[in-house]
Amino acid sequence: MSGLTRAEVEELAVLARLELTEDELARMQVDLAAILVHMEALAEVDTSAVAPMTHAVPMDLRLRKDEPQPSLPVEVALRAAPDARDGHFRVPNIIKTQEGA
Amino acid sequence: MIWSSVADQAHAVRTKAISAVELTRAYLERIAAKDGELGAYLAVDEAGAIAAATRVDECVARGEDPGPLAGVPVGLKDVFVTEGLATTAGSRILEGWIPPYDGTAVAQLRAAGAVVLGKLNCDEFAMGSSNENSAYKLCRNPWDLTRTPGGSSGGSAAAVAAGLCSFSLGTDTGGSIRQPAAMCGVVGIKPTYGRVSRWGVVAYASSLDQVGPLTRSVADAALVLEAICGHDPRDATSVVEPAPLLASAPTAGVDGLTIGIPVEYGGDIDPEIAAAVQRAAAILREAGANVVEISLPHTRYALPAYYVIAPAEASSNLARYDGIRYGIRRGEGGLAEVYRATRGAGFGAEVKRRIMLGTYALRAGYYDAYYKKAQQVRALIKRDFEQAYATCDAILSPTTPTPAFALGANATPYEMYLADVFTLACNLAGLPGASVPAARASSGLPIGVQILGRPLDEATVLRVAGAIERAAGVMDLHPPFAS
User: Fold this and answer.
1) ipTM of the complex
2) Spatial distance between the Cα atoms of B413 and B447, rounded to a whole number of angstroms
């Protein structure tokens, strides 16, 4: 399972929303395979009777009271945006994009 | 006063023996003189620090108490979100971002009177063990400038060791406080998962990340930890237990405690590190502790489990960096093109690798074999610790397999991952853990040992660390670079 094809690496990069250069793709194929081979040790462990652990410290899902709290003013929230206009984040046209969003 | 303890500095400021502004200026002058060579700081906020120190002095002048950290200058790993002060997480993707708010831990430090000097170098998004993944600059080890300070909180450890801040904050997902602390000869503690709020801390792997101090003494660590622990309604994983009282723990002694040494933590380690652990064990025995062998049978699976779980969580957490709301934006065309171009240009090699690894582990068809399997193994690792703590109160081990290694020494990603082999299990199980300086290698480099405790039992970790610190006699040594 640790032999990754070039096509699989390219597909992963699409899923991960990462534009990678030719060199990066070639390097990634080698590096991921070299790391994943060490993950195979996990298969040695008998976990048939073990529930997956989701929290390090036992805790119930706590809900806080639904009380209004002050939030960042719109102009402050937009201050760091690469492109903002009229109180909004400006994004590329989504509707016409082939892949949607 | 540069090398004085946190308590002594705060006392001096409160009693007007020194002003907070004088103390702050002393550190700022050292940073200006020395950090060009060291590379510990990514940003120095001279004006903000002087303004904060002035407020502390005004508070003292009015006869009010500025808090337990009155005027004490602190450096923050650059993953702590700071209002009005650039926060990059060591990444180009956040270049130029000025956050509009302070995270909880930073707000707590300010409320306790601490003065923020600036932001410290780190591996990009806290992913790394040598600080070499910083997108901005190298950070060097003050004990040997050709070596790494460790990582990912490398700047946090180097700055404390070199006297460029009184103490610092770091974060620890798999060893990122304890490993650099060991390599730079300072104290580092990762509290129990959930002890310190993660609100306003740039996330790496949310089920593992925890905030903690790097300090020049165990007493300093206790004092800082008291100031930043406690429940925060804005972090759903923050524990509800009240903040612990820790000030007396470092000097409480270890008489009657049982210390376990895991038989599995031997193997491929530097002989001088093994000797340091033996010496620490002898110190504890001498001080009245009972030292026993324990077994943590799933130890060898901690590293593979970690490198499935942490990248999986990272691939999800880092989806937010998309070039829309903050940070850089690249690319033309549709939304997906902008996402891909921004992230391709903004992330460095190791971050891309972990995002890809995590995406792989979470894919339909692979989820059971990787992520679910790793979470099951994680449960077994936690069970190992629960069984061990039935027979001991704390666990002693090496912090790192070797002292600080040379910059550029680890050629492959996996070789670098091995630097955290002794520290990862603590995060997987959510335990408190510390590294305390215990010896010097023949090369002069510092060696730390690791102490792990039961969940929420930071006090016992500090008791054991304090006992080792008192007898090891290496805490008063400073790197020649710092003189």
Assistant:
1) 0.91
2) 24
